[in-house]
Amino acid sequence: MATGHTDPQRRERILAATLDLIADEGIARVSHRKIAARAGVPLGSMTYHFSGMDDLLREAFGRFTDHIVAVFDAYLSAPADPEQARAAVADLVHVLSEGSQRDLVLTQELYTLAARQPAYRELTQEWMRRSRVHLEKHFDPDTARQLDALIEGLTLHRALAQEPHGRTLTLEAIARITATGAPAR
Amino acid sequence: MATGHTDPQRRERILAATLDLIADEGIARVSHRKIAARAGVPLGSMTYHFSGMDDLLREAFGRFTDHIVAVFDAYLSAPADPEQARAAVADLVHVLSEGSQRDLVLTQELYTLAARQPAYRELTQEWMRRSRVHLEKHFDPDTARQLDALIEGLTLHRALAQEPHGRTLTLEAIARITATGAPAR
DNA sequence: ACCGTGAGTGTACGATCGTACGCTCCAAAG
DNA sequence: CTTTGGAGCGTACGATCGTACACTCACGGT
Lengths: 185, 185
Prior knowledge:
Two copies of one chain form a homodimer. Chain A is mainly alpha-helical. Chain A is built from nine helices and no strands.
């Protein structure tokens, strides 16, 4: 018994392939077979490692939020004062809205799931909570909340707009929202 | 020939059933058969009225944007001055984020499609354009753009948040974004 | 050297899907 | 009344799907 025979990389490869496939084709077109082909694993591995499609999707989006939260952390933990924080937020908005189509698409797929199923809503709530913690290092809680929503809206509108707005407008919006919100320092 | 035999209500019922089904189960689970059952039409009507699934979805979301743009119009065309406009925007955010789950879910499904396919992006762009036209009646173009993004973010975060923020915070955010943007009056 | 065990796989089954297409049948033309 | 064309429908086909499950086989214990 206990043959050290297992391969933990299999699981990870399957999860990565799942996210890649969703980014390329959308949740509507995912299937165990396509994921297996992409990950280079036999079909039987799907039901062996995951109890079903729902289980697989939940875990895959868990990995995705880990990744996207890490991006937020990377941008929002560095700044040392409110002014640097504003610049970092602007960077974040522009990276998210014009960087890889992958993250943008996956974010929308996640929001769509979250709008309907509480299990996924918890993932987005954790994400929102984490980003607000960072923002509250430089702004009061109410301002942080408003700024968090603004980031969301600016990112989405920039990503979908025919002529995306420039960095100047992003910075102006951030400055306005945070104008009266960082008095204590 | 030219038997006035056609029934235009069939098409509409199919489109309405399509949106209902998407709101209930998500695009991933729609099928011609389920839509037909919901609309009370035979399966054959699906391929008769629409050239395929893609065609059907595109037209259905066209109807949806017509509806949601009408909601925007209803709220944003009434106000007579910037102060009333701010209140109307706050109303809009709260109606969209706590009203029918249906509109929220369909909006997210549409954004997900728009993030990947240009055909759907045109729908969201038209919607964004229309709402900005209304906002520009009371605020300068840059402010209108920022406010439009803020509406998006506030609505989504309020809809997904564990403890949605109150109207006071909504109004404060709107006031901040529009504070310096409505000088001409 | 032999077995037991459990990780990992190949395959097959029943369900469901999108779509094509031949058919019905009503209304207008003659 | 007979003809006829097109609107609309029922059905069947091939593809694809999720999942269950019997199986293989390398390894650790004896």
